[in-house]
Structures are given as C-alpha cells and as structure tokens.
Amino acid sequence: MLDMRPDCERCGTDLPAQDPGAFICSFECTFCADCANELDDLCPNCGGELMDRPTRARKLHEKFPPATKRKAAA
C-alpha cells in the first residue's frame, strides 16, 4: 500500500492523499506537479521516472490512513 506522503519533498507543498497533483517514483519519493515538471519527471533521489500518484478516497483514510510525516527538505 502506498504511504501517500503529505508533502512535496522539494518545496513542501501540501499534497493531500485525496487530491490529484502528486507525482511519485517507484520508491514513493513524492513531488508536486510544478517540481516534477522542473525535474523533467525524473526523481532527483534515485533517477527513476516520476508518475502520477493515484488518489485515496477520503472515506478510506480511517482504515488506511495516509502518512503524516513530512519529507520536505529543511
């Protein structure tokens, strides 16, 4: 199951699990659409392709909660 990380690792933009607009690589590094575009859809951590992250319906958040630990660089 995907972690559904809550923020862009590069700029810190909020990326709610139920909303579109997040991009992930196969290691679940997570970026907003603007940063993914600036990175030419390549993960700066592993070099993998950044793809659209699927959304998770809000009704499933209680049973399958999205991650809460933020990953943005300080």
From TrEMBL:
One Pfam short name: DUF1272
Entries under InterPro entries matching the protein: DUF1272
Organism: Qipengyuania citrea
Name of the protein in its database record: DUF1272 domain-containing protein
